[in-house]
Q: What sequence folds into this?
């Protein structure tokens, strides 16, 4: 080649903490690797640089075993030879929430700064596709680049690259997010191991570099060529300086440099001569044959996704806002930053793609369940402390006038919008402490004898409300005071279930169960044994257990909702593969058992039971093909002819104020090698649909690109998917069911995957995973919200977001307090905006509120607070104090929000 070229060799190891081996076996290898790296760098100044995979958790994992090596490691980081951060872990993009990704960046920066500089590299070497808001997240983190291996064009292992219709002309490109943010994108076109194991022997090196240089030049837009010296769990190449020297002697027209990402990116930007392609939005390998997108990791081991959804919601949507609420009101303890960091780290250790994607060996996923529990238990402890501190500071004295023996209860709405819905709380109607001299027998006798009749639930204005009371009987309990030994007691426990109405956003509303005579009018949401109806919608249950939903706002009717579909799956944890020629089984022709489950003034529920039979497993050929490592698209296996029963119980519920219908499905899976979905035909005319993703409601095509050969077109979702036409639409929300498909069946049916059962990991060898068959009991939850379009869809999206967030409730006593019985510390308005977070910043002590614009239109957010504050400022996802914002005469703030912008406002107090 006539122009000078530079080969930038970047040493690294891509460190999957757990995958085809359990965590600790990979951990042992990591310790050996870092030991070797430290020795090599101390002994050889020519071994210049090593990139520690963009994740600071590697430092934690190493120093957990080798704490005595911290000084050596720290010095090499300070000297710029080992580059760390910006992430805490390398997370999957589509299966982790926006706030989880923000915490990941925040904690990665926090941990990296303790050692030295943070590597400002947007590193996504093997992420299974990338969300469209990544460029904005990078820019808000002070990062102007993104390096990735998947999504733009098909890239295989062993340096093989597909010759399809690429979306980018070069391996360098401009990546633009929906808000207009741009970063320099670097595609690992020949994978992140294209400079692996460089030969020292000159004959081998000659052949190696002739091939490698040609491969890189095939896609590079400049003479600055990138070679990644490492791969998954790759040991350090100790003779790399000698290998580089040999290359220099063999190719005098090429400068070989043991480089780093900063130097490489600077060189690319200096020498850029070609016009780069601009790629916009999500990187999901849309222009491929569809067989290797790894999208079905969204449905592998669904139980993990459900635990993750709950864990994220408990931290970011309940614990953080409640702890911030308690802190700004100066009740209870200070905001527990240390506990949040610990809980988030425990949760994020489950977020790498081989973990949350469910595509590892069984031992890995057993340990994940424990981590999910650990993180959730910390969140629950924070929630319990925060809610009780707030509840005990509420002025409940007015309830004295509402009736005798008032027992106040507080309902917290930690979502970003006013909320109504059915809540349950277990309260102590009578509590007798052993410290007061009661024997066990005496306490039990008193508690059993307590009269619970003649009571009614009232709101703060003493109006009685419909309420279901369940006497749970005598129970043991205990307090754990901060200033004395544990305090055991016996109590008479009661469960109250009622509809909380119009609880303010990020606020609370107080009720009380009192002794008082009250006449409540009997009413029902049933207009027939199989028909439920409120002011907004009507539900009619058919003989086969499906139901029809009528939207009263516009008269739209959606039929055949809730049919189950079952197909075989001869794929693996990564990808679904239906047997050739198989016709799906459905419950559409199956008679269901139907009964009324609940009939109250505030809620109606129907239980639908299907006694079904499905094939027991794949046939014998599947085992043979798995052992022979037959690539899953080429398999010929079918389903077994042996049938086994599966009993599915579906509860369909409608509340008095509900804008949609909730569905809970329970079943005991004893079949293998299959997929179970629930179908929601929309019968709407639409070529595209909208789906919830990270900080974005993204539009996707119903029909894949012409290159797509896979019969399945499943995709990722987070909270919901929406199919709509002018004047009508249907939103299907879920809890931890991250896979859906809009079927090309003439009805634009939304199919949501409830379970996918497979028996092998897949990828580069045979790794049996019997626990991925997901045998045993499962419960899944969904909700359906119709809308009228033309802006009304955002109300449905709001309901779908609130569906993700558990209600929080607390019992308190009769007392004076500084907090009103209905209260919220902040109020906000903003059309088309979604509130994402309310938390405290550890460094500044400020309250941070974050929104994102769901629309590609300009908007504004108006914020008011009832609390004293010094000033408002606009920040970024790193939550650094920015320029002070002007406030209006009433103390409120109005801030413009750009299309699809993520906006963070700090409130300095």
A:
């Amino acid at each position: 080649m006539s122009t000078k070229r530079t080969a930038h060799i970047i040493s690294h190891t891509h460190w999957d903490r757990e995958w085809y081996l359990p965590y600790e076996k990979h951990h042992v290898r990591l310790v050996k690797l870092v030991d070797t790296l430290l020795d090599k760098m101390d002994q050889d100044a020519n071994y210049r640089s090593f990139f520690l995979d963009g994740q600071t958790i590697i430092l934690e994992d190493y120093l957990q075993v080798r704490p005595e090596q911290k000084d050596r490691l720290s010095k090499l980081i300070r000297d710029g030879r080992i580059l760390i951060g910006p992430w805490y872990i390398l997370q999957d993009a589509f299966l982790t929430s926006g706030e989880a990704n923000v915490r990941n960046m925040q904690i990665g920066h926090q941990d990296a700064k303790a050692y030295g500089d943070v590597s400002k590299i947007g590193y996504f070497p093997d992420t299974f596709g990338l969300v469209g808001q990544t460029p904005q997240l990078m820019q808000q983190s002070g990062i102007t680049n993104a390096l990735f291996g998947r999504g733009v064009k098909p890239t295989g292992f062993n340096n093989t690259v597909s010759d399809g219709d690429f979306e980018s002309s070069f391996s360098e490109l401009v990546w633009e997010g929906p808000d207009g943010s741009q970063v320099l994108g670097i595609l690992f076109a020949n994978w992140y191991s294209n400079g692996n194991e460089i030969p020292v022997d000159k004959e081998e090196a000659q052949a190696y570099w002739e091939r490698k240089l040609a491969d890189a030049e095939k896609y590079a837009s400049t003479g600055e060529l990138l070679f990644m010296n490492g791969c998954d769990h790759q040991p350090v190449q100790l003779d790399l300086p000698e290998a580089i020297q040999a290359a220099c002697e063999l190719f005098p027209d090429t400068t070989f440099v043991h480089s780093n990402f900063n130097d490489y990116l600077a060189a690319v930007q200096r020498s850029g001569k070609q016009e780069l392609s601009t790629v916009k939005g999500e990187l999901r390998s849309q222009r491929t044959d569809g067989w290797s997108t790894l999208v079905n990791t969204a449905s592998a081991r669904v139980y993990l996704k459900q635990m993750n959804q709950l864990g994220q919601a408990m931290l970011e949507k309940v614990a953080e806002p409640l702890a911030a609420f308690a802190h700004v009101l100066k009740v209870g303890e200070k905001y527990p930053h240390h506990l949040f960091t610990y809980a988030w780290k425990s949760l994020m250790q489950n977020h790498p793609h081989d973990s949350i994607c469910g595509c590892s060996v069984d031992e890995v996923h057993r340990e994940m369940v424990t981590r999910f529990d650990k993180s959730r238990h910390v969140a629950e402890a924070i929630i319990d402390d925060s809610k009780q501190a707030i509840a005990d500071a509420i002025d409940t004295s007015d309830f004295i006038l509402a009736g005798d023996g008032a027992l106040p209860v507080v309902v917290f709405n930690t979502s970003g919008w006013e909320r109504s819905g059915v809540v349950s709380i277990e309260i102590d109607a009578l509590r007798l402490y052993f410290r007061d001299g009661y024997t066990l027998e005496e306490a039990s006798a008193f508690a059993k004898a307590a009269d619970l009749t003649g009571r009614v639930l009232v709101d703060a204005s003493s109006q009685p409300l419909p309420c279901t009371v369940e006497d749970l009987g005598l129970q043991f309990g205990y307090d754990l005071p901060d200033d004395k030994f544990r305090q055991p007691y016996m109590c008479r426990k009661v469960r109250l279930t009622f509809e909380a109405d119009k609880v303010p956003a990020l606020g609370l509303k107080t009720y009380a169960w009192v002794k008082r005579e009250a006449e409540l009018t009997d009413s029902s949401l049933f207009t027939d044994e199989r028909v439920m109806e409120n002011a907004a919608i009507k539900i009619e249950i058919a003989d086969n257990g499906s139901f029809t939903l009528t939207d009263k706002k516009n008269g739209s009717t959606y039929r055949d909702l809730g049919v189950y579909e079952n197909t075989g799956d001869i794929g693996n944890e990564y990808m679904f593969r239906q047997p050739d020629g198989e016709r799906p089984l459905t419950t559409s022709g199956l008679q269901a058992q139907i009964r009324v489950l609940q009939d109250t003034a505030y809620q109606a529920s129907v239980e639908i039971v299907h006694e079904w039979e499905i094939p027991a497993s794949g046939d014998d050929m599947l085992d043979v093909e798995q052992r022979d490592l037959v690539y899953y698209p080429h398999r010929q296996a079918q389903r077994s002819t042996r049938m086994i029963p599966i009993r599915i119980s579906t509860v369909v519920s409608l509340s008095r104020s509900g804008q949609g219908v909730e569905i809970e499905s329970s079943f005991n899976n004893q079949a293998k090698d299959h997929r179970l979905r629930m179908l929601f035909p929309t019968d709407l005319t639409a070529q595209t649909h909208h789906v919830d993703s990270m900080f974005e409601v993204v539009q996707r095509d119903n029909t894949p690109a012409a290159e797509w050969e896979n019969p399945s077109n499943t995709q990722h979702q987070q909270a919901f998917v929406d199919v709509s036409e002018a004047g009508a639409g249907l939103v299907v929300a879920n809890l931890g069911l991250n896979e859906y498909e809009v079927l090309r069946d003439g009805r634009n049916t939304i199919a949501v995957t409830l379970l996918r059962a497979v028996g092998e990991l897949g990828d580069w060898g045979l790794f049996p995973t019997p626990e991925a068959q997901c045998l045993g009991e499962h419960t899944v939850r969904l909700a359906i919200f119709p809308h009228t379009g033309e802006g009304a869809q955002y109300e449905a999206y709001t309901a779908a977001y609130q569906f993700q967030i558990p209600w929080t409730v607390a019992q308190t006593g009769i007392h004076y307090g500084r907090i009103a019985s209905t209260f919220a510390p902040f109020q906000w308005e903003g059309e088309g905006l979604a509130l994402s977070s309310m938390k405290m910043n550890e460094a500044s002590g400020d309250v941070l509120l974050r929104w994102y614009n769901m629309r590609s239109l300009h908007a504004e957010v108006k914020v008011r607070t009832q609390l004293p504050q010094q000033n408002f400022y606009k920040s970024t996802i790193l939550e650094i104090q920015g320029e002070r914002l002007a406030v209006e005469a009433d103390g409120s703030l109005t801030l413009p929000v750009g299309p699809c912008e993520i906006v963070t406002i700090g409130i300095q107090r």
About this structure: The first helix runs from residue 23 to 43. The chain has 15 helices and 47 strands. The radius of gyration is 29 Å.
